[in-house]
Structures are given as structure tokens and as C-alpha cells.
Write a structure and sequence with these properties.
This protein has 288 residues and is α+β, with helices and mostly antiparallel strands. The protein contains five helices and twelve strands. It comes from Microbacterium laevaniformans.
Length: 288
């Protein structure tokens, strides 16, 4: 596999799902999984695979504008996945698709996504924060660990470069304990010019670090003994075209945590300040 020496190539292999000849009322696709030290599939993988599968069943004039998905069961990262797409609706302006991701015939992720034929219309956006440390300055200021304490994933094997403006929370929470943070991200090398691929990789990236505002607000690092975190659901809205191999700022906050659950929201901006996506995710969090 190309990814043995290139983590970006490995990610692209994972997102290169295959379509089968068999089709009844649904379109069927298959894909491989990222190797993960814990043996559990990374959520961003199935998010991206599911949107790619759904996208392939729509016309070239349709682009995804929103998705809502639930993580139903842990996936086995040593095995591949099967994806089924139900073409729920095709209208003049919008198409709706339901994608289920299976292992051993059991769904591990379920998503509904909406696609739009884009037309001219009203246009406004939130402003990007102005006082955020840039990625180069943040890299120079903060030291980072080589291995993620909870997932045990080697960070240099991550296809996405991740830089915390306020410092990572892998081993300790620096500064004030507030339920908010800013994270710079980009693919570690160019991935071509296919807009559908860039949208899918943005979905992949959106599952990285979005859990952290919940933890940061309580001064909890990923290395906390006995910490258990699992994503419950994920929502995403694509607002504007994006290139994921250029720096993006992921502005995150957590408005609430209660009863073993925490909610995070995020806005993703280009370095020039254009809002390209919004994200919401609820997690289960258990602290001894």
C-alpha cells in the first residue's frame, strides 16, 4: 500500500471506495479501513467514506451542503466496510441520501445527507477571530508529544497536520481551563483539485479535536488515567468551496456538558477568513 511511506496516500486509499455490480434498491460500495493502534475505526474515516458514497449517486450538478450521522457501534479497524446508499429523494433543487456503513452485516454508522443544485442567493458569514496565534507561531511556541495518549496513534503518521493555537491537551491543559480552542489543520501534502475529495477530507478532518473543548474546559488531558471518550453523533454543513491542503482554522467551543455527555460546535475558516463549514458533535465522556 502506498500509505506505508506516505500517510496522505494511505488516507486517499481509504477514501477510494469501490462500487459493486450488485444493486437492488440501494447502491453498494466497499472500502478499507485505517490501521489504528486501538483496533477501533476512526470516526472521520466513516464520515468521509459515507459522504463519498452518497455523492457518487447524485448528478454532477449536486454538491453536499449538510449531513447528520450517528455512530452506532465501534468499528474494527483491521477489517473493511460495506456502504449502502438509499436514494431517498431527488427534487429540482435538492437530493437526499441515506448511507449506512456496515461490518459483519451490522450497521456501525448511519447518515442522512442533503445535496443541492447551487443557485445565486443571499450571502453572509460569521467573522473569523482576529487574535488567534498563526500556525507557524503556534508550532514554534508549543511542544507536542509524538503519540496521542488515548488513541495511541503516532501523530507523524496522521495525514492531517494539526496545530493547537493554545497548545495541545495531549499531556496537560495549558493556561485557563475554558471550553473553547482554536486549531489549525491541513493535509500534509497537496491532494489534487477534485472538489468532492476536498469536501470529503474536510469531513475526515472535522472529527479531529472537536471533542477537546469539553475536556479543556475541565482541565482534562487525553493522558488522564481511565478517561473514556466516544463520539455519539456528528453534523456538518458545507458553506463554501475549500482546499484542505491549505491551512484552515477550526474554531471550537462547548456550550454544555452534563450527564456523561458533552456538546461541541465548530466553525472552519480559510486563512483568509472565509467560512467554509460548520460542525456539531456530541460525545460520551467518562472520567474516573
Amino acid at each position: 500500500m502506498r500509505g506505508e511511506t506516505d500517510p496522505v496516500a494511505e488516507m486517499l486509499d481509504v477514501l477510494d471506495i469501490s462500487s459493486g455490480d450488485a444493486r437492488t434498491t440501494e447502491d453498494i460500495f466497499t472500502g478499507i479501513s485505517h490501521p489504528m493502534p486501538t483496533g477501533r475505526i476512526f470516526g472521520g474515516q466513516v464520515l468521509a467514506q459515507a459522504i463519498i458514497a452518497a455523492d457518487r449517486t447524485t448528478g454532477d450538478d449536486r454538491v453536499p451542503h449538510s449531513m447528520h450521522g450517528y455512530f452506532l457501534r465501534p468499528g474494527d479497524a483491521t477489517r473493511g466496510v460495506t456502504l449502502s446508499v438509499d436514494r431517498i429523494h431527488d427534487g429540482r433543487s435538492f437530493s437526499t441520501r441515506r448511507t449506512q456503513v456496515y461490518q459483519d452485516g451490522v450497521p456501525i454508522f448511519s447518515m442522512i445527507a442533503s445535496f443541492e443544485h447551487e443557485d445565486a442567493g443571499l450571502d453572509h458569514q460569521s467573522r473569523m477571530p482576529e487574535d488567534v496565534l498563526g500556525p507557524e507561531e503556534a508550532l514554534a511556541r508549543w511542544e507536542t508529544t509524538r503519540r496521542h495518549p488515548l488513541s495511541q496513534r503516532l501523530l507523524d503518521r496522521n495525514p492531517i497536520e494539526v496545530v493547537h493555537a493554545e497548545g495541545a491537551i495531549y499531556d496537560a491543559v495549558h493556561g485557563e481551563h475554558v471550553p473553547a480552542q482554536n486549531v489549525w489543520m491541513r493535509a500534509k501534502r497537496p491532494i489534487g483539485s477534485d472538489p468532492a475529495l476536498h469536501r470529503a477530507v474536510l469531513a475526515y478532518m472535522s472529527d479531529l479535536t472537536i471533542q477537546e473543548p469539553v475536556l479543556r474546559g475541565h482541565g482534562i488531558a487525553w493522558s488522564q488515567p481511565g478517561l473514556k471518550v466516544a463520539s455519539l453523533d456528528h453534523a456538518m454543513w458545507w458553506h463554501r468551496p475549500v482546499r484542505v491542503d491549505e491551512w484552515l482554522l477550526y474554531v471550537q467551543n462547548s456550550p454544555s456538558a452534563r450527564a456523561g455527555r458533552g456538546l461541541s460546535s465548530g466553525r472552519i475558516f480559510t486563512r483568509e477568513g472565509e467560512l467554509v463549514a460548520s460542525v456539531g458533535q456530541e460525545i460520551m465522556v467518562r472520567v474516573p
